[in-house]
Amino acid sequence: MGKQHHFTKFPGQINASYFVQSHICAADDFTQARVSEICKIIKLPLKKSNLSAVASFLQACQSLENREPYFSWLYRNGGPLASQATVRKRLEAEGYFNLAFKGFSNCFDGQAAIFELSEKSVSLADGCTFFCSSPKAPVSVSDIKDDDSLAKEIKQSEAYLLILEETKELNDFLEQHPFSIHGTIYNGGLRRKFNHGSLKSGGRFYPGYANLPKQIVRSDRSMVKPRRLATIDGESIAEVDLSAAFLSILAAQSGQWWPEDVDDPYQLIPFVAAGKGDERDFAKVLVSSIVMKNGKLTKVPTSLRLYEPKKGEEYKRFREIASTQTDKELIGQIHGAYPFLSQPFNGQNVVFWESEVIAKTMWNAAQIGIPAYPLHDALFVRRRDAKQVQGLMEGIFRDLLGYKPCLLYTSPSPRDRG
């Protein structure tokens, strides 16, 4: 686990499996004792900021269970996160982790680094439970500086103030309805992030649990499915999923909706229709890549063509699928199934409309007392509320985009389609 190996062999190509958060604390006496013990080991006073930073690190350790041992953490020494920097340095000095890669841009707060857990940290958080509180800044816009004219214009606009108010109210409401998943309790804690200096670009919520995989394969080959054991208000959950979200949004915007008898738009792609299962997931990744490239993708991403499952993930046949046809043939089948992908569009604006459907569904659900926690194009809800939330999401999509999504459904967790 030496850091020199990673710098020399593949610098910049290490993928972090988790991002250390900044508003985590212990949720029970056992965890509090563990956090305090580590503070004493690294010789820091038991003040709130230090305890929270150590708890954040332990929560990352727990989230990396049976996964690749890489996590990212802000690499900033001053400002409001100065205490995290102090804790990070002391933990690294005590051998809890090693620096693997430094200096990449973090979408929220600037520079970050990737670290690799040491053996002593692998089981450090066993039995711990954490609590995630709401961030002080629940709405952010990237690519602007706080003191420039664009930032002032955006943050004084009616649109921004409305989004900020609604996000704060959602967090306040969700504080009364805890969501528990994989050892962490989320009481709100949602942050909505817009991109490229625009409130029409991006806009997804980025909760801490977004980094958790659907399933974790342990070393003994047993499988843990965090979503299946998750609860809201102590009740089992279901997922309400806006399936084929990017395709549905672009189809609606272009007026090129598919025939009414099409239950799954991905089946319009020849290699998916003729496939054996993994082709649909392959197509989902490829479609997302096309959308993020504004329709201008010409090569199948390396993540598909040279796919290797990460530690703890089940194997998918992506390499085999990519090898059956050329990039031009695979991408051509997708463009043939969805002609609107060949027309000009902005991928981040597509993400915005997806986020609007999710945000408005959450807001409307909260108005009738139903808690809903987001994950990209889906919502976690109490199982008893699933049908009602499904109806809300259908209506909101139709109101915003003019069509009723043809493949919106409720599934028990974890979802097996998306």
Give your account of this protein's structure.
- The chain is of the alpha+beta class and 418 residues long.
- It contains 14 helices and 18 strands.
- It starts with a helix and ends in a 6-residue tail after the last strand.
- The model is unreliable at 1-12 and 413-418 (pLDDT under 50).
Keywords:
418 residues; alpha+beta; four-stranded mixed sheet; 14 helices; 38% helix; disordered N terminus; disordered C terminus
Chain-wise SSE layout:
Elements: H1 3-9, E1 18-19, E2 24-26, H2 29-41, H3 48-63, E3 70-74, H4 82-93, E4 97-106, E5 110-117, E6 130-132, E7 139-141, H5 149-155, H6 158-174, E8 179-181, E9 184-186, E10 192-194, E11 202-205, E12 216-217, E13 223-224, E14 231-232, E15 235-242, H7 245-254, H8 270-273, H9 278-292, H10 302-305, H11 318-324, H12 327-337, H13 347-367, E16 372-375, E17 378-382, H14 386-401, E18 408-412
Parallel strand pairs: 1-3, 6-9, 7-10
Antiparallel strand pairs: 2-6, 3-5, 4-5, 8-9, 8-14, 10-11, 12-13, 14-15, 15-17, 15-18, 16-17
Helix pairs in contact: 2-3, 3-4, 7-13, 13-14
Overall geometry: globular
Decide which structural class fits the backbone. Answer: alpha+beta
**What gap, in angstroms, lies between the N and C termini?**
36 Å
Number of H- or I-type helical stretches: 14
User: Mind telling me the C-alpha Rg?
Assistant: 22 Å
Helix content: 25-40%
Number of strands: 18
Strand content: 15-25%
Mean pLDDT across residues: 84
Largest beta-sheet details: 9 strands, mixed
Q: Which residues sit in consecutive blocks of at least 5 with pLDDT less than 50?
A: 1-12, 413-418
